[in-house]
Amino acid sequence: MKKYFYLILASLAFASCKKNNTTDIQPVDLNVTVAYNLQTSGYQLPLTGVKVKVTNLDTKVAQEFTTSDKGILRATQLTPGLYDIDASITISANDYSTITGNTVTKDVIYNASLKNKQIGVGFSETIDLKLVSGTIGDWVIKQVSYSGSDRVNGATFRDQFIEFYNNSDKTLYADSLCFAETVGLITKTSGSTYNLLATGQLDWNKSAGMPANIDANNDYIYARAFFMIPGTGKQYPIKPGESIVVAQTAINHKTPFTGVDGKTISVLNPSLTIDLSTANFEAYYAPFLTKPLASDIDNPTVPNLKVYAYFGSDMIFDTGGRYSYALIKAGANQNPETWPQYNYPTKAAPSSGANKFFQIPTKYVLDAVEVQPNEVVDRVPKKYGAGLDAGFASSPLGQYTSQSIIRKTEKTVNGRVILKDTNNSTEDFDNLMFAAPRAFK
Questions:
Q1: Which helix (DSSP H) or strand (DSSP E) does residue 228 occupy?
Q2: Among 158, 254, 310, 329, which is least packed, fewest CB within 10 Å?
Q3: Distance between CA 381 and CA 424 in Å, rounded?
Q4: Could you tell me the residue range of the domain that residue 295 belongs to?
Q5: Claim to verify: residue 309 and residue 323 sit in the same structural domain
């Protein structure tokens, strides 16, 4: 009899567990308010029709909504999960000039974003998004090949490059353009080591020796690698719709070459890598290193970058996508080489030999692209605010896959390609399965 009693109890327990496991997941509603991050402007910009994109990172389902005239929306029946929320509005140049009294010749784009927001059952919080205008300029970062190619059959990281594009209708000069690989927190478990903001990113205001009268987090970015294109002022003209390709090493990586150690360097599968022998500029680190990489040969036909700061043994971009990139043009009477440098904002006092990073004023940033790892679980806190980049880009297949991130084509006018630039890399960028200098997508 006792045996049957235990069997009945077990059956009841199993039925109870089965019932709990099949309980339907309750959908949630999301309330969002959008406003402009303006101080004392004296005018009101429109809130009607702000586009809000809500993306479930678990299901990859994206939904788009528009706000009311008060900047309010309610997204109903969402599946609980982890979400990205992006808002954007484009105000025509004519409307913006009329409303503000400030004459502009280009449309003005405002963005806001909230990344990795957990929206679970019973969620009742109202999401407040602050729209900020970003830099929409003549120069844009067009392509970044940071993921590298296969470590066995390809060129590993030797074939990395970055490409800048003249997105205007006039000739521009590359002379004195600077660019940087910018730093920030790249791990999720560093709270005991670093002073952090509420966003989880580094609090640069607490770096050793940082002046107290500046906004070190919002008015500056920080670089671990910092370069300048040389020139006399008008030495390197770039026509409308043309690019500058900057290579780590400006050679044809598909064919064997002789390294600085006299040994042959080759790849097993040339189709996995690229020809960078026609790059406009290259990085050359040998003069700074006791033992340079064998692959860092100097192509005498390609001008070298001026190196203000370097990290590692060559211009090696992080293949995991944990750092980001900015294109910079210093103001008149500015010498970027003399800009201050600061340590990471560690809780303990930095050692005398600790790395320091160039502090770059955001007012000199022409374009910026936030890069993130391809897997959601590997994302790190955003380094750039919405004023520089409201979103981010990534190579979907990850490290050593020959992929690149590339800016989308918006339209073609009289044969000139105009690239998309909304100041949100999530919307502006796509991918090439095989990186290709001067290609379009």
A1: strand 220-228
A2: 329
A3: 16
A4: 139-432
A5: yes
